[in-house]
Design brief:
alpha+beta, Arylsulfatase, C-terminal domain, seven-stranded mixed β-sheet, six-stranded antiparallel β-sheet, globular, disordered N terminus, Serine/threonine-protein kinase PLK4, kinase, serine/threonine-protein kinase
Length: 605
Amino acid sequence: MAVSAAEWIPHSCDKCMNLDSIKNYDKFELIGTGGFAKVYRGIRLCDRLDVAIKIMDKQQLKLKNAQARINAEVQIHYRLRNSAIVQLLEVFEDDTNIYLILDLCATDMQKYLNIRQQFTEDETRHYIKQIVTGIEYLHSHQILHRDLKLHNLLLTKENNVKIADFGLAKQLVTHEQTNFTMVGTPNFLAPEIATRKTHSFEADIWSLGALIYQCLVGKPPFDDQDVLSTLKRVANVRYVLPEGLSHEAKDLINRILQKDTKKRLTLIQIRNHPFLLKRLMNDRINSSRNSCTSLRSDSGYFDTSISSRQQTNESILSRGPTTLNSLPPLVINKNQKINASSSSVLSYNNLSNINHISQRKSIHEKLTPLNTQRLDRRHVITKSDIMDVLDDGEVVIQHLVEIKTGSKRIVDVFRVSSDGQKIIYYRPDRRQYNSYIESEGPLPLPINYEQYTFETLPEQFHNKYRRAWKFVNIIRSLRCKIIMYTNDGKCRLMETSIEFDFTHINGTKISVYRKNLEHLDSPLEIKLIDSSGRMTSIFNYNDCVEQLNVPLDTKQMLHKAIKFRECCLIKNQLLEEHQTQFPEGKTFPAIFGEKPRLSSHNILK
């Protein structure tokens, strides 16, 4: 257990005094997943309190060597009690899981900013004052957060901010203590962390400056096409303040984003800066109830936002200064209990032009995150798209349309990060249309673009993401992940961990593949090509080989191919676990066995 019973005082009242902790909660729909945890919306039965229930599988924690990290997170988080911090209400366990009960919030600031595109200075003041309060509280207890970003700042239904995610937090012994570990998110890393120097509480203040910039401008100050470029910009403190910001806002950002930590503003100086002291022009900053897209709960290491996307008022989506559209109150039907796979029982009041909202299915039920790990650069031009996998693994799809002259031009660009989690969309400048078509180098990022995470991707872009996933999946189905030599021939398991082929020493080739590459669960088929290359047979993978109307020697080869594939899948599972535990090592492609020495055949090359 991360926190012992002696350290943790569980919730207790007259109604649940003699009740096991786990029986005091009802679990509803799934609102987030991660490598070893799932987060559900829940309710505490004794007082009907709405909560988030984070469930972590002990076996997964052990496999991923994450016990110490979870222990450190809970040790820090469970003792924090402040209105600007997401509260960890209770921790308990059973034989298989650890349960964290947390405050349930309405959304996170990144998701809200994705809708609004940028906040007004009044709105930014409202949020930053509360964030400063939370950071002051953490630093007063010698706690360094180290991962302050909009994803980790949650909004309540009253539109107040709570700091979440203490997975990278560090408990220091004294205020003068420093740390050496390079952790955090590149866009918000302080220069001292990016350059692997000692760092302390000033690193959180730097992140606060980057947050202020992002709130007012709509994107992080050092955001670039790849991590290395971003870190270089951070190290050199290279950013641009756009026109339109007030003198006070520019001054605050410039005085926080100082490379020299001694010149960086302190929290007290920030609180007393003219930008934050300026009177709010909108006295009703908490009264408007016009927009909300999802639930979000503190997740520890991953995004837990529900992927449902509601129709929103055009004024919310418009760029530029607007009055704050606060979050509506949650209305929960407390008499309705549903399974985690059921639809949400949440409803929202006072949404403009919406009489009824039906929650759409989780994005995970429609799409699968792509992954270009270990893939080489690819450049493909089709009738309607230019598709690339770049050197850094980014996937770029440039959509082509035919114009009156008969030539083609690019009308929009859809870009997905190598892990499939970050998506950028924009329409390029007309003057640059033709320059993209023949280019295989890195594409420039325009000033105006839309940025989403996999969880927050609007439904209108799902087809584009699906095309990108299919493009990557086709490449992965052709790239070898495991090679295994046997006395009978050569086996290859592809990067998809599904597609497989076996080349017999007599030249016969047997392939296992999906009937439809667009779906991971598509039925498998077996294709057999004889040694002459002229005769091809196709069978259903699940058919009994003994019942097939083929010669005995063919049945024996099919049996062996299926057996060898299962062997490769077992090796793949073990190697995947090894790579998770030792990510610095190069595990794939892996080769097992020795190629048979044949004098008259080269079929196993």
